[in-house]
Amino acid sequence: MEAAPPLFSFGVITDIQYADAEDGYDFEGCRRRYYRQSLQLLRDAVEAWAAEKPPLAFVLQLGDSIDGLNAGGGTAEAALERVLEVLGRLPVPVHHAWGNHELYNFSRARLLRSSLHGSAAASAGTPAACQAYHFSPAARFRVVVLDAYDLSILGREPGSPRYQESLRLLREKNPNDNLNNPEGLEEPRFVEFNGGFSQAQLDWFNEVLKFSDENQEKVVVMGHLPIHPEASNAVCLAWNYEDALSVIHSHQCVVCFLAGHLHDGGYCLDSHGVHHVTLAAIIETPPESNAFGTIYVYEDKMILRGRGRISDRIMTF
Questions:
Q1: Which of 102, 187, 261, 270 sits a CA distance of 20 to 30 A from 151?
Q2: Phi and psi for 60 in degrees, rounded to 5?
């Protein structure tokens, strides 16, 4: 038992990928995906979080809340409504990262008008039309939400400057006919289902961390895509992950980076003492298990208590 109570605690979950559909398989046809069951696992997570004492401060949903299957069936709005209804049973705020599956279903313009957009908590100076913001849940502590698809061809109008810039970057690195195919690439992360951070977002991020350094805050950062090669495979990283890491490593304040996308999850403690936690996905979790956690924050550490496929972890600062 801990001698002192935590300063606060929060829930973490990722890659729910709900669809009202029979079980299927991943793109390679070998990993089972439990589309319908994922909503029940989310309900179980919400029930467990709601029973926590003292109550959680908030929940972080790390992206891919509904599956791309919904886009083909015209069920995206209904699927998202069901996921948000379950999360809405929590008496605390839920903060959302955007993943590739949100962008298969909705344009960025639509997402900016949805409950998945953190506009209510949006901070001054946030880059325009970007799902990036920060908030402070407790004294000397800050959470930063990053938009890992700020550079992406997903969810954007083909004629738009950001689409053209993203397509140019992708084409430079990926000559394959199918832009989702990483085969033969020197840098296999340059596929359509990934994305990156614009320079405007990186500049904003740098300013936020500068403020946190000056105010002796500790910072947790979240985004859908992992940004450290040792907490991911070579395919699932953000396109310009080095740029995001470089911003983080030029400051003292960041203690942890939380991501999803890689369905098996991953972890590393990097050379600057930052914990990179990539959470396992709900969508590939069998019905008898689960994949969510609660993080308890103390002065000198965070303790992750995982359920099902997510391991417990002590992360010292």
A1: 270
A2: -105, 120
What distance lies between CA 85 and its chain's CA centroid?
20
pLDDT digits over 38-90, tens only? Answer: 999 999 999 999 999 999 999 999 999 999 999 999 999 999 999 999 999 99
Neighbours of 68 (CB within 10 A): 19
What is the rounded CA–CA span in Å between residue 289 and residue 105? 27
pTM over cut 0.85 = yes
Q: How many CB atoms lie within 10 A of CB 222?
A: 24
At 6, the amino acid letter reads P
pLDDT tens-digit readout, 259-295: 999 999 999 999 999 999 999 999 999 999 999 999 9
Q: How many CA atoms does the CB half-sphere of 13 hold within 13 Å? A: 32
Question: Which residue type is seen at 233?
Answer: N
Residue 283 in domain: yes
Domain presence at residue 1: no
Which domain covers residue 102, as residue numbers?
A: 8-316
Domain count, the chain: 1
Q: Between vectors from CA 271 to CA 202 and to CA 234, what angle results, nearest 5°?
A: 65
**The domain spanning residue 250 has which CATH number?**
3.60.21.10
Q: Does residue 2 lie within any of the structural domains?
A: no
Tell whether 3 is covered by a domain: no
Mean pLDDT of 79-106: 97
CA distance 9 to 55: 8
